[in-house]
Amino acid sequence: MRARVRSVWLAIVGVAALLVGGAAPGFTAAPPTASGASNARQEVPARLVRLTGDPAPGVKGEAARGRPDTAYVLVGGQRIPVALTLIRGVPTGAVLARLSAPVGGDDAAIGAALARGTVAVASVRVDPGERHGTDLGEHHVLVVPVYWESSTTDAGELARSFGAMADYYKRNTNAKITLATATIMAPQKITLTTTQRDECDYTAIESKVRTITGTTPHDRFHHIVAVMENLPSCWWGGLATLGPSATGDGFIWVNGYPLASLLAHEMGHNLDLTHSGALWCFDSRGKRVPLSDTCRSTTYDDAWDVMGNQPYGFGAIGAFNLDRLGVLGVGDRVVVPGSATVTLKPLEAGVGLRSVAFIDGNARYEIEYRIAAGDDRYIDAATYVDGSGVRRTRPGGGVIIRRYGLGWDNDDQEFDVVDFHPLATEETYDRHPGLEAGESFTWPGSRRAIRVESTSSAGAVITISRPHGDVVRWYGADRYSTSLTIAQNAFGGSGSDLFLASGNVFTDALSGAGVAGRAGSPLLLTPRDDLPIDMLQVVFDTKPPLATILGGPASVGTWAESLLESQVAKVRRLAGADRYEASAAISQASFTPGVDVAYVASGLVFPDALSGAPVSGLRGGPMLLTRPDALPDAIASELRRVQPKSVVVLGGPASINDAVLGQIAAAAGVTPSRISGADRYEVSAAVSAANFPAGTDTVFIASGAIFTDALSGAPAAVVHKGPMLLVTSSRIPDAIRAELTRLKPRTIVILGGPHSVGSGVATALQAYLRS
C-alpha cells in the first residue's frame, strides 16, 4: 500500500520555505471513529506539499547528502510547517488536517490561529475526495528559463538535456512513462529583491514563473521547470515537489545546472520517488560490516539509480523504483517467503524477472542484477584495490541488494544499498558493494543467507535460504498490521488488485479469500470506519488497478470506502443482505458456469472454510456458505448458476447436517462429497491430505481459534500453492502432526504473533522440515 501499506509499502527536502497556494475551504466535522463515536476534534481541508532538494553536480562528501525534507500544509492561505513523522503514509495533495483544539471562524481565522501557534496540526490524513491515480502515461513539460541579471541560457543545450531525459524515461520504463517534447520558452527576465536573492527565496521565483506561464493545466501529468540563473545563496542544484505542488502539477527549480541526469532526478521526485542511499553499518568495535544492528542511512550514496547522486555515471532506474512507479508487471518481480533458487535477468534486459524481494525482521530487501551494458555501461569503467587486496571495478555490477526499513523507522522512505565489500572510511568513491559469482553472505544471527551461484550476460542464479531452517513468522502489532505484513511478504509490489474485508466480521472474507488468491491479490483487513494509515501508504505506493470491498457498509463503512476511492482508480463492493447473499454475490462476480468444483462450508462455524479457502483458490471454485440445517435460497440459486461438476462440503454433520447435502444435490445437480473430522484440526488435516501431495514446498500454519490471521493468509497460501493447517496456541494437534510428517515441507509460515501461535509451537515445527 507503494507499499505504503508498508508498507507500507516510502528524500532530501529543501530548507523550510513555503510555496504559494490558494486558500483552503472551511473545516468540516470529523469522521466517526472506528467505534462509531464522533471525534471531538475538528478537521480542516488543507493541501499537503513536500519539497526535496539536491546538491549541485560534483558536490561530494557530507555536503552531497543534502538537508532535511520540508513539508507543510496550506490552510486558510497560511503555510504551516509539519514534521515528517506527522505525515507518514500521507501522499501530497488534498488532506484533512486535524486540529489540536476546536477553532471557530472562517478559513482565514483558522489559518491565522495555526500561524500564531494558538492551535496546532495534530494529525494529517488523506482527503477521501482526493483521487491519486497512476503516473503511467504521457507527461508534458514546460521549461521557463529565468534570469535577473544576465541570461546564459543555451537553447540548444536545454533541448538536448530535456530530450535525453525523455529518452531515458521512455527506455527505462518500456514506454510506460513518456515525456512529450518539452516546450522551451525564450529566456524571461524577472525582478528579485536583494532579500529574495540573499535568502534563496524560491517561493518568489515560483510565483513569478507561474505569472509568466499563465493558466497551464494543473495535474500530475504537467510539469513546470524553472531553469534559473545560478543563485549562490541556494545550496541546491535542483529542487522539486515530491509529487504534486500546491496547485496540483509538478514543479522543478534548476539552479543553473540543466544537466540531463539532474533533470531526470528531479522528475523522479515529481513522480513521487524519494532518494536512494547506502547503509553504513558497524560492529561493536566500530569496524565497517555489511549489516549489523548499528546501521545508518547515507542519502544519495547509491550509484545504481537515478535517485542516488550518480557519481560514476547516469545509470538505469533500479528495479525497486520501477516497482514504485508501477512499471514492473507479472513475472517481473517475485517475493520469496523462505528458500528459493531463482534466475535474475539483468536490469538492462527490460523484460523477465528483474526483482526478488524478501522480508527479514522489520526490513524489506530488494535484489537486482546489474551488468555493464546500456545505461549501466559505466559501472566497470575504473578499478581499485580493496582493503583485502582484491582488485575490483567501481562501482561494479553484480547482485545489488537494497534495504527498506518497515515499521515507519524510515521517515524518508529510502531504499539503501547494502555494501558487501565495505572499506574503512565512508568518504570514498572506491566502492563495489555488489555480490559477484561465488560470493555469499549470511545475515546476522543466521536469519537469512544469499549465495550467487553464477552470473553471465543472460542472468544471475541466486539462492536465498535460511541456514537454521525455514520456519518463519509473519505478523504485526495487531490483526490489521498482520494482514499488511502478510501482503508484503507474499505479494510485494505494484500491479495486482486488492481485496479489503472487515477485521471484525469474518464471513465476507471467508468467501473472498480464495478469490483474492486466485487473482494473485492480497486480502487486507480493516476497521469498519477507517483505513489504517500504513495501509493507505501501501495502497498509494502499489496503485492497484482495482480494489474490491467484501461485505456491506456494516462491515466496511462508507468512510473507509471513500478513503479507498481516493487512492484507487476503480473500487467495487460485493455485498448482500446477509452473509449468505454476500457469499453468493462474491461467487457470481468471480466465476462463470461450469466450474470444476464448488466448496460449501458453514457460515456459523468458520475454521472449516479457513482450511478450505486456499484449496478453493487453487482449484478455481467458489467458497459458498450455508446454514447448518438449511441451504439459503441465495446459495441454492448460485449453485444452479455455476453448474459445478462436483461439490465438496467442508465439515461434519455438526457443522452442516445431511439434509443440507440433499438440498445441495438438488440445486447443483451433482451429489456432494464431504471432508470431515472429529474437530476443526482433523478437518484441516483432511482438507490438506485430499489436495496437496507429499513434498509440498510451503505450508501455512494459523490459529484454529483466532481467525483473522488465516483470513489474510489464505490468498498467500494460494499463490504459494500450500495448505492452511490449524493449530492451538500451545500445541500441534495429532492430526496436524501426521499431516506435517506426510508433507515434509521446505518452508513453514506461521501466520500471526506468539499470542496466536506460541513460541513452543514454532520450535516444535522445526522437526517437520525437509532436510
From TrEMBL:
The keyword Signal applies. The keyword Signal applies. Residues 162-277 form the Peptidase M11 gametolysin domain. Residues 1-29 form the signal peptide. Keywords: Signal. InterPro entries: Bact_Sporulation_Assoc, Cell_wall-bd_2, Peptidase_M11. SUPFAM superfamilies: Metalloproteases ('zincins'), catalytic domain (SSF55486). This is Peptidase M11 gametolysin domain-containing protein. The lineage of its organism: Bacteria, Bacillati, Actinomycetota, Actinomycetes, Micrococcales.
